[in-house]
Amino acid sequence: MIAVACAPDDPSILAPDRLDERVSVLEEYANGGLVLLEERIAKAGAVSLETLFIHMIQEALAETGDETPTDLTTEILNL
C-alpha cells in the first residue's frame, strides 16, 4: 500500500509483474526509517531504547494533537 500512496496516479503499480517496484519502495521507506532511528539513538546518548521510544511516541502524539492515545500507545507508555 505504500507503493500506491507513492504513485496514486498509477494503479498498475499493483500488477503482479511490478512486484519488484513495490518491494523497492518498501525498502526505501524502511531504510529511511532506520536512518531516522539511528540519528535519534545517536542524539539520545545514554538513554535506554525504551525511554527513547516512549519520548518519540509522546512527540508524535503532541504533533498530531491526539490527546487520546490508543490502547497500544497506552501500553507502551506504561512500560
Automatic annotation (TrEMBL):
It comes from the Bacteria. This is Uncharacterized protein. It comes from Mycolicibacterium mageritense.
